[in-house]
Amino acid sequence: MTNPISDPTAYVDQAAALIGLPIPSEYHQSVVENFERIAAIAQLVLEFPLPEETEIAPVFEPASRTVTSL
Amino acid sequence: MPTPISDMPHYPDATSIAQSVQNQETSAKSVVAAALAGIAEKNPKLNCFTTVLAEQAMADADALDQTIAQGQAPGPLAGVPFGVKDLFDIAGVTTLAGSKINADRPPATQDATLVTRLKQAGAILVGAQNMDEYAYGFVTENSHYGPSRNPHDPTRITGGSSGGSVAAVAAGMVPLSLGSDTNGSIRVPSAFCGIFGLKPTYGRLSRARTYPFVGSLDHLGPFARSVRDIALIFDILQGPDPDDPVCTTRPPQPCLPELAKGIDGLRIAVAADYFAKNAEPEVFEAVETVVRALGVEQRVTIPEAHRARAAAFIITASEGSHLHLADLRSRPQDFDFATRDRFLAGALIPTGWYLQAQKFRHWYRDRVQELFEMVDIILAPTVPCVAPPIGEQKLVLDGVEMLLRPNIGLFAQPLSFIGLPIINVPVQRSGQLPLGVQVIAAPYNEALALRVAAYLEATGVVSAPVPE
Fold first, then answer.
1. B435 vs chain A: nearest CA distance in angstroms?
2. Helix, strand, or coil (residue B53)
3. A20/B329 Cβ within 8 A
4. Closest Cα partner for B263 from B457, B442, B398, B448?
5. Does the pLDDT at position A50 exceed 50?
6. In terms of Cα–Cα distance, which of B129, B22, B109, B139 is closest to B69?
């Protein structure tokens, strides 16, 4: 199982900076480890071929059920 | 198919309590006072309740008794004390969801829909129950409010995240609780603590006014010590609710009248492959006990279950983290250390991973739907081991050491991922800790799963006695 992100530490630092999420230094190592775990698990999903027409779930409903006039 | 009351001399189920109150053999006040006394005695040791609403519960019981005295029908759950996982809104109480952060919020102004429905049926709310912070865990070792403890062995975990709700029922403090299940949080603790827990079809029960975890996967459901209680409660809880956009508009499917039908004509299979490895031998012995009792010979493979679990993991981490992003930015130190770093990491998941997981969910749903054209019920283990000791970090399965916390739910996660209705049936083992088996049906077929559970209960194969 290959990891889809080659340098998890660099990814965590750059992605966190991009979305403005400070990672305090005392949690940094554990966050990287957790991200590595997520990335390894994600690979199982990413490597699996799906038909192009597969919709994402759940289905979006264009009208709220609380709006009775639509 | 009633549970013989003689099996539970000290701890009647909700149905028995309601009948006694309806027949005026006992008063709601005396039932609720006894429950509050039981909580006062056991809760300091087991840490199930984070809030006890003693005064309000006694006032509600008094009001119910007056209703009965006036000759009015008191409802099918008359006088039954119940608790709810601390993510259900209770009017006048701040919904903590196991967190320190949400303690800063104002009290809820209105009860959750399911709390309202139980109260309208005559049940009496006695308190809110402990959980993993924001429901992100399988252990209920909450660093803010302490661990809940397993009534079968208080040195061991209850499982989670609905640990307080389950242990309160298992210990006989209340006959009924409500909890939530995103990846296994109803089924896992039910197995560890040896009670019945129903995770209905995704969208079957309203989630209105409960604190969310992962909107795509969150379910609510009941815990009890008899199958007839589960059916009675589930029937009361069903029904559409415009306040939850996911709640189904399908008509309710009453389950209680179905229980006596037994298992004749049901095509039952046991899950092979993924669900037949990576667990202690005693887990498969418990499954075999149920398989033999039902005369099951067919085995089926749920395809790509390991990927389903992975996809559930990605959706959970992504949606859960997004929900808490503002607090993760401003006050990460106030999170439980057990959830904080997972949330921080989950906030960084690329969109493409999330979308692929959601697409996979549709593909996998269609494959499992094909299986349910051939069978009505699938059996699978609920947990890979008995309840581990509190504080345990590692688990050895099939000779491989792995992290305990993420792997407790390996049999539960691939099934909630596509919203299948499942009841955990508790297998009691003399002198040993209980285990559980998942009885899984096709979407909206809760009644079939409950029929199987009722048959197993009536034949003595599964039960939920309170440990002495």
1. 27
2. coil
3. yes
4. B448
5. yes
6. B22
**Mind listing the pLDDT tens digit for each residue in B418-440?**
999 999 999 999 999 999 999 99
Give the DSSP H/E element, type plus range, for residue B323: helix B305-323
pLDDT tens digits, residue range B374-391?
A: 999 999 999 999 999 999
Give A44's contacts in chain B (Cβ within 8 Å): 306-307, 310-311
Distance of CA B339 to the CA centre of its chain: 20
Q: What is the DSSP string of B173-199?
A: S-SEEEEEESSSTTHHHHHHHT-EEEE
pLDDT greater at residue B17 or residue A54 = B17
Contact A44 B340 (CB under 8 A): no
Q: Is the peptide bond before B388 cis (omega within 30 degrees of 0)?
A: no
Q: How far apart are CA B91 and CA B89, in angstroms?
A: 6
| Strand partners for B403 | B394
B206 among known catalytic residues: no
The answer to whether residue B304 neighbours chain A at the CB level (below 8 Å) is yes
Q: What is the pLDDT of residues B265-290, one digit of tens each?
A: 999 999 999 999 999 999 999 999 99
DSSP string, B136-180: --SS-EETTTEE-EETTEEEEE--SSSHHHHHHHHTTS-SEEEEE
Q: Which of B199, B228, B227 is nearest to B423 (CA)?
A: B199
DSSP B377-428: EEEEES-SSSPPBTT--EEEETTEEEEHHHHTTTTTHHHHTTT--EEEEEEE
Q: B456: buried, middle or exposed (CB in 10 Å: 19+, 13-18, 0-12)?
A: buried
Tell how strand B377-381 and strand B432-441 pair up: antiparallel
Query: What pTM did the predictor assign?
Result: 0.96
- B interface mutation test: which of A41, A54, A55, A60 has the most B CBs within 10 A? A41
B442 versus A63: which is more confidently predicted? Answer: B442
